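As a warm-up, study this chain.
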Amino acid sequence: MNRDHLEGGVRHLRGRVKTAAGAVRGRAGDQFEGAYDQAAGAAQYAYGEARDTVRDLRHGGEHLVEEGRARFREVSDRGHALADEAIERGHHYRDRAVRHGRSLAARADENRGATLALVAAVAFGLGWLARPSR
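Now compare it with the structure written out below.
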């Protein structure tokens, strides 16, 4: 409850009293002023209600923003963890491929004759498959 809420309610009640007193006394001016105060009080009361609603919505919005920030941080942290894990796995597979490549190169160097025959056979086979058909 805010000041406009309270003052609007009081002004509305005062206007009702003034309208009733004007009706009892037979004074149209007092009735008119009372009706005016009633309408003005109702408007001020409604304005106070609107202010309260806006305040509540703002607080709710701030809560949602803070919750969104917390979720973003959580997702961001999880994303960084996944990226770090992917980089680590990439390094692992790269190192493994380098080791296997070096091992294969060492075997090929030890068995030069067999390697030469294998490369020649593969080249012949690819050449035979790639030849134009008749």
